[in-house]
Design a protein that fits this description.
It is a single chain. The protein is mainly alpha-helical and about 90 residues long. About 75% of the residues lie in helices and about 0% in strands. It is built from four helices and no strands. It is elongated, with a radius of gyration of 35 Å. The protein starts with a helix and ends with a helix. About 0% of the residues are buried.
Amino acid sequence: MRIEAYSQVQQVYTTKKTNKAEAKRNVSFSDHLQLSSIGKDIQSAKAAVAASSDVRESVTAPLKARIQAGSYEVSADSFAEKLFSKYEEMR
């Protein structure tokens, strides 16, 4: 094997590498983001959901008042029936 041939091949590859590196330095990149109309609609829907309250006061206020007054009662049969139906749904 001739060492001179190896060094000549190595020189060819090293010059190409430096040229690519120099070419990349002169190029500038910038990122752009463009949302579709569906993406904009989803974004506005997410914002509306985030702005809304998690608790519906119209539903919870009467229950809170009955609990505080001591007049709220839960039927054990009704509770067990609903619990069992939810269990069946999850199976």
